[in-house]
From TrEMBL:
Superkingdom of the source species: Eukaryota
UniProt keyword ATP-binding present: yes
GO MF annotation terms: ATP binding; ATP-dependent activity, acting on DNA; helicase activity; hydrolase activity, acting on acid anhydrides, in phosphorus-containing anhydrides; nucleic acid binding; zinc ion binding
SMART domains on file: DEXDc (SM00487), HELICc (SM00490), HIRAN (SM00910), RING (SM00184)
Positions of the RING-type domain: 658-699
Gene name of the encoded protein: HLTF
Residues covered by the Helicase C-terminal domain: 736-895
Helicase ATP-binding domain location: 272-505
PANTHER family tied to this protein: HELICASE-LIKE TRANSCRIPTION FACTOR (PTHR45626:SF17), TRANSCRIPTION TERMINATION FACTOR 2-RELATED (PTHR45626)
Protein name, UniProt field: Helicase like transcription factor
Pfam families associated with the record: Helicase_C (PF00271), HIRAN (PF08797), SNF2-rel_dom (PF00176), zf-C3HC4_2 (PF13923)
Amino acid sequence: MSWLCRPRKGGVDCRNYSHNSSSEFYSSLGLEGFSVADTSGTVEEDTDSAILYGTLRGSIVGLRYYKGVVNNNEMVALQREPNNPYDKNAVKVNNVNGDQVGHIKKELAAALAGIMDNKLAVVEGVVPYGAKNVFTMPVQMSFWGREENKEAVLDQLKMHGFKLAPPLKECGFGSKWISGKTGPTYSAPVHAAVHLTTEQLKSEFDKLFEDLKEDDKTCEMEGAEAVGTLLLPHQKQALAWMVSRENSDNLPPFWEERNNFYYNILTNFAVKERPKNVLGGILADDMGLGKTLTTIALILTNFQDGKPLPVEKITSDKSYEVRWKKKIVSQYSKSSDLGESEECLPLQTERSSFNYCTASIQSVEKKYSEDGPRTTLIICPLSVLSNWIDQFEQHTSQDFHLNIYIYYGSDRNKDPAILSEQDVVLTTYNVLATDYGVSKYDSPLHKIKWLRIVLDEAHTIRNPNAQQTKAVLSLEAHRRWVLTGTPIQNSVKDLWSLISFLKLKPFTDREWWHRTIQRPVTMGTPGGLRRLQSLIKSITLRRTKISKVKGKPILELPERKVLIQHVTLAEEERQIYQSVKKEGKVAINRFFNEGTVLAHYADILGVLLRLRQLCCHPHLCTNTSSSFSVGSNTPEELRQMLVNKMKLVLSSGSDEECAVCLESLTLPVITHCAHVFCKPCIYEVIRSEQPNASCPLCRSELRVEHLVECSLEEELNSSNGKKGGQEWISSSKINALMHALIELRKENPTIKCLVVSQFTTFLSLIENALKKSGFVFTRLDGSMAQKKRVEAIQCFQSSQAGSPTVMLLSLKAGGVGLNLTAASRVFLMDPAWNPAAEDQCFDRCHRLGQKYNVIITKFIVKDSVEENMLKIQNKKRELAAGAFATKKPSASEIKQTKINEIKALIDL
DNA sequence: ACCGCCGGGTGCC
DNA sequence: ACCGCCGGGTGCC
């Protein structure tokens, strides 16, 4: 219990980011002490665009009253202490470990207080010398902030009689002092940050994972007896690496031993006790290489001192019983994949029978009573929960029994004593966050010290302010693993949560992460990327599908070819297309001339959607609930119009991102100015900009009471917009598809195909054509119940004669785990906005288990919006390749990108 | 703190 | 002397 009550260092700690107004906001509620960690995501994240204003020498006083010590050249943190009873301007000075060293002298503190409270600048300190002083010591301060705040900061300092020295070359990162024998020397970063070109960054990034196969990462290790599956060579390597990391007593990265002290060469912090290495790391293999299997092998193989997990060996008379139980587990799993809300839970009976099982298994005589913790906690998104259960079932030998508890569902057992008796507890990020949200102190998963925690698809916690992230970061464990196929999605920033989870000192504290890694990288400081590289390298194992083991490709995947098949519209189709295009172009031109493009963003997406639909089939384009009228009607009409616009944006398949968090929309809401954001994101913007918040995209007034959300019924109603008895006709695209399918059938009637579209109504139209030509087909889309999905997949994957040869697939159906290797042909009926979504879809058949070369055919209508979409896709690919280490785009940059996209799409 | 600063004691040479 | 100077007490914010 004790670790829960203690204020936590290294959790989400925003000391230097705390905001005056927000602390007042919370203290008015009597909540001070809880507030600071909850500061908005918008203000503090701007630290990426900070420039160095200058430096100032000051002094730290009161050293004799505190135990925190520093070394010469060590970085220190300056932290406001507004509740200090002697001086409301007080500024504390802490060392890297978070121990207080002293205070900033009061005259200087008086000047700093306003600057820090109003977040005009971030003030960072380094103690250049005098670290052994008894009463006072000097501190060299650097002032960082956004260009527009520079004057205000200089004025503020001047008022108190201080003046910044020009940013000396060497003190850009306070790194003059860390050069010493070990650290790299930085030269002239400061004002004119050397921004690397995209290509340079990209190649640097590629190097990040080079040489990873060297070191000790090529040793192989066999799994324990209880691992029922033979591991592939690269999986044995991963197992060996993971086991060695769990049992290692090496120093963590950037620490060195020097005469009985341990030095951190980035911050110059020293401690007497040997810092513990991360007993874990990041397994960042590409998907399909078997991260799940390897992790299961790890759990079974490395319990304590390199000994296997003492699992129960099953005697033959028991094995029937257990097999039967395993069956129930898998049944449970297959119905649990719908959504995270409690309503979508699997059937009560199935769950309770499973829980009953676990209980009965626990009553079986216990062979082992270990002192330390024995349980591994696995946290994953709901969509892969069932995959874990399946894989445990598949890969644990039939002769052994693992106690696995699925901590999910409203009747989950919250007794920590029961949970900590399991071998494995499986749960989801949302369940964890929900428990934690109800009460940090009653959350059962937070009461247990785990043997090991595994975060699957760990990039789901890349937002440090998300409740899920906070919940994950405050779990206790000996060993910590992060599984992800995408270690760095958008920027270095995304790494922080992961590094912090791994408890890598001193990076658990965002300030140190930012000063030592993030800023040097984003500013392009020479050596910055190398530093990040050596950090990543020391804790990460990453192989891609094309990596090699002993000169051989890791996975011998068949070839994958993408062909573009141009389609010419028939005359009548072309006419409709042209007239809709003309009409849309006139409207969009008007928006451009009026400068109201963004205000009509949803309308424009609507035009583009209609054009894309017309490329597929004229019948798709009947949802012409044109919302061009902007007449201010009754509030209810206005609301309905906004709901319609939002539905348009959401259904347009444009994969809209929230401009605040840059991720796909969760709980979308629409503003009066018709821009769609995540509800929590926009609430945060409104709160942090109070009293006068404005839309991040267009700066118009923003008020909570003006936000409109789409109720669940409305969403449902819109999705089953079934076509009434319209008479079936074909289309040019369908003809092209059918031609290809029939040719293929002649060639080889057993080849299976995926026919993919973003428009489920289009899939329905294609059904007609398939029926007419006598194809046996099945279908998988997002609206299907879990049971039906499983049926469809099993049916399609079957190699039996008469099994379907075609699967109609909606582009985003199914999670990453979806396995459709029976297909070796893909027909992509319409291009997606986001090329990554297409690739993901292709990977569902082009993956481990695929026996044939995969040929993908993209149908693209000539002289249409589809051709332009291909261009945008290419641009996005380039962008994604170079996205690493670039800073978060501002709202105005997003705006510009969107405008450019629109221009490119409608060829203006 | 081998400082600065404060405030009481003190007062030609 | 409503000063200077001395020397003891004292010391973060």
